[in-house]
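Hi support team,

I submitted a single chain yesterday and got back a structure, but I'm not sure I'm reading the token output correctly. Could someone confirm the output below corresponds to the sequence I sent? I've pasted both exactly as they appear in my results page.

Thanks,
R.
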Amino acid sequence: MGKVPTGDQGPRPLRFAPVLWRTLLGAAGQLPPTHPLAAALTPHLPHWRAELDAAQPPPLLSAAQVNTLIRAALHGTQASAQAPGIEIGGAQTLTAFGPAGFAMMTAPNVGEALHIGLRFQHLIGTPLVLRARPQGGELRLELRAGAALHADVERFLTEEFIASLLGILRQETGRDLRPLRTELTGPPLPLDVRLRYHAAFGTVSFGAPHSAVVWPAAWLTLPLLRADPATHRDALAWCERLTHAATPEPGEAFDAQVADCLRLQPPHDRDLGTVAALLGLHPRTVRHRLSRLGTTFREVRAGMLLDEAREWLAHSPDSTEEIAQRLGFSDARSFRRALKAWTGHTPRNSASAPQTTVKLSGQCQPVFMCPGAAPNAGNRSVMRVAACSAHLTRFSSK
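Hi R., thanks for writing in. Yes, this is the structure output for that exact sequence:
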């Protein structure tokens, strides 16, 4: 039996959407050459600008390069204290996101467009990792930093993405849509920035474990003004071809790619078939490539769950029962057993336990329950994965 990765799987290459990439390069170029941030970018800027002039797609960047470029751009605009991401994001349109943008723009409704955006976010280009969570009559879209991004960089990317999302929703539906609330990480910002946030995002709170924008689930059924079945079908086929033709990103191990795909899915859709489709591979191929790394799909998923569990336990005020539900466990008891088996610690101690690699025994799988299902009362000591994705709609509330 292989070992479960703890989530520390090396650097994750990142990519920007073309319009944002062009904007950042232009703003970073305003810095004087003697500025330390400009000096750090000097080896890369000429090559990046040449590729931009040649209409090449934005390159893959390390987290360090993303941090340096955005900080240089913020200094270059001399507006880092005035939420520049809102102004930049508000100017975005779906056509800026390539084939995936056209597939979303021509979708029949908001829900289908959102599903496409989540499925093909590797084509859209954002250093953030997106996840949709239906909760009652609401839809919660969470934004996470998928790499070691600095707090000010993550804040810029978050405000830029939310501003672009809301602007695009209004453009494509023809309605003045306002979210129910926006939740942001970190402490409250200065008053002038908070006022700008409230004007752009509506009700805003700070200190959340993950940034999120929450809107009524009823928005998912709103029709799009430019829905076009024929163009939509062609754009989707284009996205599929690009996904199948994609090669693994340099420096990213295959198990890290699988873990990233798992993070993009709601708990009940974290199955091998879904991940294989996102990677454009057959499930057998995914199993084979993971086995060559000495691990399995089940172990990668367990490592990803452990990583998320530590994060929620360390930063969320929610109870163990609520965290277990968020992660897709059938109940708090299953969650406690899984943590104990993976780390040797209870939930109370797992968040502060050393980040060590742990082994996954053959009888330690989380129970993922579909709505209305009951735990296996006849054999609670053996935790099994419930195949329930067929019982779920993609973004509808329970």
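A quick pointer for reading it: The radius of gyration is 21 Å. Let us know if anything else looks off.

Best,
Support desk
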